[in-house]
Amino acid sequence: MNKFDRILWRINGVLFLALLIFGLVPVVWNLSTLSVNRPAQRNPTIVNESKGTRQKEQLHLGAPSRLNGTSFLRTPLQSEATLSGSSFGRRGEREHTRNFLFLDYSDLSTWWLFEAFDRAIVKAHDLRLKDGNNERVIGTIFEVATADTNGDLRITEDDHLAAFFTAADGKKPIEIIPPSDRILSVDQVNNTQVLIVYQRGPAVTAALFSTQDGSKIKESPLPLNK
User: Fold this and answer.
1) How many domains, the chain?
2) Is residue 215 part of a domain?
3) What is the pLDDT of residues 17-71, one digit of tens each?
């Protein structure tokens, strides 16, 4: 091979390499752009099927919280973006908590607050034993929608709410207030009593419950009428 042929081969090699590089750059760029712009996928931990329909709801575990003074962690099981027409919700609505998973980190045992995932847990009010600077969680009042009561084929905070009491471990929840139009307030008045004000129809009632076992101490209707 003479000198001219060697030079020609080198030029052809450089041109081929340049074409290869410039051909691959757009491909690599497009792949990297897709990777960066692709929305983060949150893998559902549970797929829950609505009763009486074929609609399914994807659920995932949220961020756990530690219950102060105990060995328990409480983690919400939350709904993903819901399907149109589902009895649990409609597309674009905010997440709803369907259950809580409890973990005892002393022995790594776990259990659910409720057996099924067919409720909307609107609020959790932790009850605390105040001893100096320490506040140990001794129980919780949960505000829960248990059924679709307004006929919109959804279970949300817009439905009637019941109040459930549990000890700090979240086991054996007790319904202390049946489904009511509204739960107006939940206030722990001292170490042993919690006051709940709720409305059912036109009547508004104030009720005191024990923070130890959720038993009713006394209740009284509020005099709203003159």
Assistant:
1) 2
2) no
3) 555 555 554 544 454 454 444 445 555 567 766 554 445 778 999 999 999 999 9
Contact (CB, 8 A) for 221 and 207: no
Together in a domain, 31 and 74: no
pLDDT in tens, 146-178: 999 998 888 888 999 999 999 999 999 999 999
Q: Please tell me whether residues 21 and 104 are part of one structural domain.
A: no
Tell whether 5 is covered by a domain.
yes
Domain of residue 2: give its range.
Answer: 1-38
Residue 130's pLDDT is 85
224 belongs to a structural domain: no
